[in-house]
Amino acid sequence: MTTATSTADRSPAPQLRRPLTAARLPRWAPAGIAVLSIALACAIGAGAGLASHLQWGVIAALLFVSISYGVAAKVEGHRQAKDRFFTSLVWTAFVLAVVPLVALLVYTFQQGSSVVDGNFLNHSMRGVLSSGPGGGIYHALLGTLQQVGLATLIAAPIGLLTAVYLVEYGRGRLAAAVTFFVDVMTGIPSIVAGLFILSVWNLALGFDYSGFSGSLALAILMMPVVVRSTEEMLKLVPNELREAAFALGVPKWKTILRVVIPTAIGGITTGVMLAVARITGETAPVLMLVFVSDSINTDPFNGPQMNLPVYIWQQYGYNNQYSYARAWGAALVLIAVVMGLNLIARGIARWRSPKTGH
Amino acid sequence: MKLQRNGRSKALAIGAVALVSSLSLAACGSDNNNSSAGSTGGTGGSSTSAAAIKCADKQAPMLAAGSTAQGTAIDVWKAAFGAACPSSTLNYSGGGSGAGVQQFNQGKVTFAGSDAALKATEVEASKAVCTGGGQGIDLPMVGGLVSIIFNVQGVDHLVLDAPTLAKIFDSQITKWNAPEIAALNPGVTLPAADIQAFHRSDDSGTTQNLTAYLAKASNGAWAYPAAKTWAGKGGQSAAQSAGVSAQVKSVPNSIGYAELSYAQQNNLKSASIATGASKPVDATAVNAATTIATAKSAGASNPNDLALSLDYATKAEGAYPIVLVTYEIVCDKGNKPETLDTLKAFLNYTISDAGQHAIGDKGYVPLPKEVSDKVKTVIGTLS
Amino acid sequence: MTSSPPGVPRETTEASTETSPRRRSSLQGNSRRGDSIFRGASAGSGILLLVIMAAIAGFLIYRSSIAINKDTTSFLTTFEWDPDNIQKPSFGIAVLVFGTLVSAAIAMVIAVPVAIGIALFISHYAPRRIAQPFAYLVDLLAAVPSIIYGLWGALFLVPHLGGLNSWLDHYLGWTYIFKLSHPGAPARSLFTVGILLAIMVLPIITAVSREVFRQVPRMHEEAALALGATRWEMIRTAVLPFGRPGIISASMLGLGRALGETIAVATVLSASNVLSLHLLDAGGGTFAQNIALKFGEAGSVGKDALMASGLVLFVITLLVNGAARMIVARRKEYSGANS
Questions:
Q1: Where do the record's region annotations for Disordered lie (chain C) (predicted)?
Q2: Which of A240, C14, C162, C293 is 20 to 30 A removed from C52 (C-alpha atoms)?
Q3: pLDDT tens-place string over residues C103-140
Q4: How far is CA B276 from the centre of its chain?
């Protein structure tokens, strides 16, 4: 996007009455206005005695947007001012989003980093009192990786193929029905998915609690997210590419596999990872289907397992300083795990993608 | 081009590192928490009570589910029991009494923990699981008390009685310096602030016991029946005892209710209750034990069912009225043969003096001898 | 992930040069078999998904019908939730419908513009040096489990919103909606939940919109710039119209999470059976939160009643999605595929 940026910077306002080189705000203007409005907001906030810093932030944001519009309108003219206005809005959105998001991460890090060490990572909670220190998350980490892995193995191929079907083949009633049900599926409360698996798999078919029954529920939750995001990405692949491939005599399936999917692989990966991230953080269905365990169970098909979100929920419920620290520590690890998976997926996507970077 | 290749290999390298680290992680997990930091917590219970634990001849892993009120007690017990009998792993899922009983009746767990005795319909349903003419029975196991926790600046000691409590929780009294509260607390400077009352947003046995007390002892000030669901007007709600105590801790001028262990862990003050005895009763385990000792049998048709009927309106000296008893629900006949031995060994430990003593300092109430003797007899007859 | 036109055709030619000799020898047979296998597999997945969904829907409808038959009051207009009352089971979803819709609407009103802003920032405004790490940061936040959002919301966000709430009450209290009935009470309201949900769905909407914006054909953008458009005019005429169906889809994904969010809402909201238009006052409830809180102690009717409420959530999601689909369908000319 660097070209777009530089082109935009270079393009002067085509207003003939003004000289082309004049009537531009200096390059430091946005930064200057930002500093000015933050200072003003602090002054107003402190002056009016506003207790919440949120209010200061809101005032600063409003000031920034309006000052940059006003100044630009005065100096550069209407169209440039509008451009400045939206640029400042976009920057404000960025800052608005960064503040709570960073606050959340920093908070989690502050609360959790003190307990995370080697012992925490490779020990289970077996024999540890909830009201005492010590113990670890190994059993939960292992459970999460296995359950999410199994769920992804089930849901990602089905979701991907369904999206391919909807975009490339789907016509008529079946496609309409699938679209309809995928839409409904995005609205399943996670606990309902859990109950469904419980009723069918554990009660009607009589299987015992295991990591795998949790995976089944997670797979149900994952599918619609994969389908919808993949569908969206496949639709964006220009038709010209498909037509070019067909014109060269490439069969349709090969066009899809070698042209359409590789073109959209970045977006598809993002979609799958969003889905993985979502199910990795699920508590309710897992609690119902995987049961809980304090000990390591390496077999996801047999016996109760643990899972990181359930672990966090459980430790939060114990409600003492040690269990709180463990809960936040586990949260930190969970975020790191999902981020790691994300990076791996992106690495693979970049490696398989036809474009050499961007 | 060069840059781009770098980017790609960097991504691959990160991926490889993550993969390798996760693989190495998979190789070195350990269940043994006794060597390091865990030892302070883990062996605290087991060293004192190891002698009291007699492992089953045929050890087996057990699943159990139910009440969150007894969560910490089970936690203490399973740490000690697991240390003494390594093959008898117990996994306890605290999803609520109702969920526990349901899982028990589905045959998915060895025993359930419940804050309320089995209802007739639940007993009926249990007959499908307890094979050979057995049925689900209630064994009182964990005594506890619901403490009225408060957070009012400058007030260390607060006395309340049932009608006042009922009005506070029903938003009929909304200021801390209301005459009803002031009358019970002579000499205490109460702030003129609004009362922030917190109750449970989830259904729970704790709410059931508190409202049972209010309904019985408040002379009609509490107009609702005893129920798991909160019925009072106004106030705010929070999920689970952990949520209520976290709110009371952080919100000034607040009041709420939670099991004693939550009050202790959060350093929250508990109100004393004016019951009609000569002086107000503090929320302590000893005072709750006095009340539980006077509990009568609920008179279930099955003699093995030891459900208790608690006297919430007690006026005895030093008897704290808002108590709760958590039952372990098992089959009297027809428990699963593979876990029966382990179940009996575990329950024999928990009802033993050592077992009851181990939870005494965690905010629970050791059961009085007259109750625990009966429970021991019934455990011996389980089959 | 910009669509760089030079790269893809090269791949296409590679593919065709690779296959053409083989294809010539085996004529159409191979490709047709491959085609039918692939088509069958993808259609099969679609059907499998359909079967699973139909099973869940059937399961829900069956359980709901049991409960609704036992309900002694009107399911749609009752406020109380007391299904396990043996004499008089009564439960209704009025509060839940209101709470779910309002909190999700607040979340969408806040999150969608901000998310579009961030996505544009990453794809079109930010210097690459900032954009790349920031994109990762946003993805990272999609990974934060909801229980953490809940804890953070209860311990950090609620205390910090007190000032903003009294401010809103002071200046906008006359609107009735922003009236605070109990100043000083912790802000565990639908409004707070809406803000928390906005933060939660922000990463989802941003991530998908960003990918969509990156797929905007470079030609369109350059054409707009060549005509002398400012950057904003280029975005308005080339990027946003192209990305619109994608933005809507992304918002629907976010909305799905906002509507169905359980643990975070249960931790932050002070649930009650009161339906109040004072959005800043504590109280109200949402479907998923209600299911999670009532499930543990629910009896058999109670469980079925919760299923019935789940079914309503289904229907709501369906209606919202249907509306979105219709909007997208009207703009189909921008879709690259031949659907």
A1: 1-33
A2: C293
A3: 999 999 999 999 999 999 988 888 888 888 888 788 77
A4: 27
CATH number at residue C306: 1.10.3720.10
- For chain A, the structural domain boundaries read 29-112, 138-352
Q: Is A354 on the interface with B (CB under 8 A)?
A: no
CB pairs A-B closer than 8 Å = 167
pLDDT of residue A351: 76
Whether C98 is covered by a domain: the verdict is yes
Residue C207 sits at the chain A interface (C-beta within 8 Å) = yes
Q: How far is CA B336 from the centre of its chain?
A: 26
Query: Mind telling me how many Å the CA of C277 is from chain A's nearest CA?
Result: 23
Tens digits of per-residue pLDDT, A152-192? Answer: 999 999 999 999 999 988 778 888 888 878 877 776 778 78
CA B142/CA B329 separation, integer angstroms: 12
Are A228 and A182 a contacting pair, CB within 8 Å? yes
Q: Is residue B8 part of a domain?
A: no
Contact A210, A306 (CB under 8 A): no
Residues of B whose CB is below 8 A from C293: 201-203, 239
Q: What is the pLDDT of residues C187-238, one digit of tens each?
A: 888 999 999 999 999 988 998 898 888 888 888 888 989 998 888 889 988 8
Minimum mean pLDDT range among B59-73, B99-113, B337-351, C157-171? C157-171
Residue-level pLDDT at A302: 86
C74–chain A nearest CA distance, Å? 23
- In a domain? residue B90: yes
Structure tokens at B239: 């999920």
C297, B96: Cβ pair inside 8 Å? yes
Say yes or no: B25 contacts chain A, CB-CB below 8 A. Answer: yes
Closest Cα in chain A to B68? A317
Say yes or no: C325 contacts chain A, CB-CB below 8 A.
yes
In this complex, is the C-beta atom of C295 within 8 Å of any C-beta atom belonging to chain B? yes
C3 occurs within a structural domain = no
Give domain status of residue B66, yes or no.
yes
User: Please, where are the H alpha helices in C71-127?
Assistant: 94-120
- Least confident segment among A282-291, B51-60, B86-95, C42-51: B51-60
Tell whether the torsion through CA atoms of B284, B287, B293 and B294 is positive or negative: negative
CB contact under 8 A, B97 and C297: yes
Q: What is the pLDDT of residue B161?
A: 92
Known binding residue B309? Answer is no
Smallest CA–CA distance, residue C225 to chain B, in Å, is 27
A157 close contact with C: CB closer than 8 A:
yes
Domain region containing B40 = 18-142+330-379
Rounded to a whole number, what is the distance in Å from the CA of C318 to chain B's nearest CA? 28
As for how many domains chain B has, the answer is 1
What one-character DSSP code corresponds to residue B175? Answer: B
- Is residue B262 within 8 Å of B210, Cβ to Cβ? no
pLDDT value for B17: 59
Residue-level pLDDT at B271: 94
Q: Which amino acid is at C331?
A: R
Q: What CATH number is attached to the domain comprising B45? A: 3.40.190.10
Q: Does pLDDT of C27 surpass 80? A: no
So what's the ipTM on this one?
0.83
Supply φ then ψ for residue A295, to 5 degrees: -110, 165
Q: How many A×C Cβ pairs under 8 Å?
A: 424
Verify whether the Cβ–Cβ distance B30 to A356 is below 8 Å: no
Task: Assess whether pLDDT exceeds 70 at residue A319.
Answer: yes
Minimum CA–CA partner of A135 in chain B: B38
Question: Is position B237 within any domain?
Answer: no
Residue with token string 């840059």: B3
Q: Which chains touch B (3 or more CB pairs under 8 A)?
A: A, C
